[in-house]
Amino acid sequence: MIRAAVLGSPIAHSLSPALHMAAYKHLGITGEYTAIEVLPADLKDFIDSRDSSWTGFSLTMPLKESVMSIADVLDPLVVQVACANTLIRKDDSWSAYSTDVSGFRHSILNKGAATYKSVSIIGSGATARAAAAAVDETGRVIHVVHRNPDRCQAMKIAAPKSEIIFHPWESALPMADITINTTPSGAADVFVHTLSSKVHGIFFEALYKPWPTPLLAKWRSLGGESIDGLDLLVHQGIDQISLMTGIECDHQEFAQLLRKIGLAQLNI
């Protein structure tokens, strides 16, 4: 039996329990997956107090960086992006993984964007590093609009193949083939008024609540193509489900199933 949960704060809005439980049903396996409120300061005690019946955990903000000091084994990709969103029990130890990277990559490919030269990323935190790693490629330019210059080096490590150009938060959004917002709810609203009458490329909103975010709604109103946060949640979730169950899940099959479940949960 699978016993798992998504951890974070706030967590009540999470769609992950509905998606994971739907996947277990589709796979024909018994499982339990819940949402549990956990703060960074409490994460170690929480994990240490779990018995051997627990399979693993999904980690959302603000735990993606905190978990690195708790896991016994860090996947190489976790080391690269300095964050993790998945914790799996293996015997008596915990291994940390990042499925956010593959989630971004699958979402972009699912949109049909196989070739692109430039990416703008709003933010430079854990989700931004995962996005940067997902699009990292020799010859590609990644623009990063952010507030915290202390995070520049970590962004460079996350995407070692690309040229990375940093811009202060007050800048207008650089024109790029793909623009990705990785900031918390409301933070990127300041860029809504900076969009011109015609936008370029694809806008990828990592959030699914609110739906849509003001920036995503504005981009769409100007005729721009977009990828929403539900796609990211679904695709990173598929790889989490594979890690937790040991069953390789077909992305196309499960993406259709889980997106339908997610839209129903959002009343869309």
TrEMBL record:
Q: PANTHER family annotated for this entry?
A: BIFUNCTIONAL 3-DEHYDROQUINATE DEHYDRATASE_SHIKIMATE DEHYDROGENASE, CHLOROPLASTIC, SHIKIMATE DEHYDROGENASE
A GO molecular function assigned to this protein is: NADP binding
Q: Which Pfam families match?
A: Shikimate_dh_N
Q: Which Gene3D superfamilies match?
A: Leucine Dehydrogenase, chain A, domain 1 (3.40.50.10860), NAD(P)-binding Rossmann-like Domain (3.40.50.720)
Locate the Shikimate dehydrogenase substrate binding N-terminal domain: which residues?
6-87
What protein am I looking at? Unannotated protein
Cellular compartments per GO CC: cytosol
Which GO biological process categories is it annotated with?
chorismate biosynthetic process; shikimate metabolic process
